[in-house]
Amino acid sequence: MKTEEIYSAAQLTDYIHQVGFLPLLESGIYGYSAEAVVADDCKYVVFPDGGWDWPLWKWKGQIITDGGCVYGKFFAGKAGFISREWWADFCNYRRSRSVLPPEGSIEDTILFTLQEQGSMITRELRAACGFTGPKMRSRFDGFITRLQMDCRIVTEDFVYPTDKRGNEYGWGWSLLATPEQLYGSDACRCQCSPEESFARLSAHFRRILPQATDRQILRLIK
Fold first, then answer.
1. Which of 22, 55, 94, 180 would bridge with 42, disulfide CB 3.0–4.6 Å?
2. Rounded to 5 degrees, what angle do the CA atoms 151, 157, 160 make?
């Protein structure tokens, strides 16, 4: 896991391809996150006037769209990157532990809406699925997180509002899609059995994270 400090999206993309899997923020394993490996200048900072800057946060979209990495809430409900090289095995194992949502369920409605409409930002998808009442946002986000954990939904990019001068601002909105829409069905298929994929994933995580316990590694895979 040793690496020189990272100062750009391109450098971080290369590192993700090197390790295969990388949580965005603190993972519970020392040094194992994008936040931990980027240079201090690229971390979150708040200015005296209340403004902020966070280069790492702004790199996410570029890494997804240009770097060939998959992004979503994959690691115990927390966001992170997966290289395309490892996506099929990860998807194969995760989907084996769940079933397709039953017809007419909320999860089924979400997937059907994305398949019919294409990629949508979260708030548009929420409205299209009828989650418009009070306190519906957190409930809907819970369904989205579960679908991402099951590798049924990924983040295609991030969309930012713009001010009158055309400058982007704010935290951005996730643009969601199914992995089949983005990468094709073949990218989500694996020649291995789920058990073989699990063994491959376990061996890889032990290789890149010798400091991690079995429990920590299992938490990343499951």
1. 55
2. 135
